[in-house]
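Example 3.2
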Amino acid sequence: MEKTQIFQELSKLINPENMKIDEPMKKHTSFHIGGNADIFIKAKLKEEIKQVVQLAKEKNVPLTIVGNGTNLLVRDKGIRGIVLKPEIQNIEINGDVILAGAGNTLAEIAFKAYQANLSGFEFAGGIPGSIGGAIKMNAGAHGREMKDVVVETTCLDPNLEEVVLQNSEQGFAYRTSHFFDQFQEYIVLGTKLKLEPGHGEEIKGKMDEYTAYRKEKQPQYPSAGSTFKRGKDFLTAKLIDEAGLKGLSVGGAEVSTLHAGFIINKGEATASDVLELVQQVKRTIQEKFQKTIELEVQVIGEE
């Protein structure tokens, strides 16, 4: 079926205000880069997510799930089929436990935790993005990661059944989880976090400290956060700096002069610019230090 027909079918299931056809993905990524999605949908309800997944299966339409797009690079040719962004938002606090929907941002959750005098989530307050994406990549900062606070995660499995995965089942490791392999087709609906009692002033102080650190140490240009993963026995940003690659650019993409671990969009950068720059950095680090570096940013879309 053509995308216009699919769009019409979906319009019977989803509020048309939450759907776009030929939607530029640069509007939905922190990099401000990306070609068009054939159909882009924001699903506010669990039932809407199920209906979209069901229709995609029945019509054999490719389906891509995205979060807030803060760790994402969409290729210039865009994404075929349906791009679905789950926006379930619901924060509940019971004692030292927080329940959050996949669409809630880390900043929202951190603020609610502070209001409830709950400590342990301060590290995440400055990380852009939603909790769904943060769980998938085991986001972290300041020595803490999602694996340290997640108790369980509720997901939709490929059979459209709701399943609850315990922390130990999610395969958390450095910037990855089983949502990249054995649970690749699962869609995160929400999660349960376990924090600890704290004092509001101390929690706020730590959050402010982390925010100031990010503003001072990290570039304020559009980016997808840290571009490369840390090496097992080396700091990738340090090697990039030592190789003299700060300021290296391709088109509108540049290795940040403030933090060598970031590739930034200086203006009108394309995904091709970013990927070419990534290859140049990789080659140089391999040649100079005999080290292989890996992308932390997820690359999706038609090649």
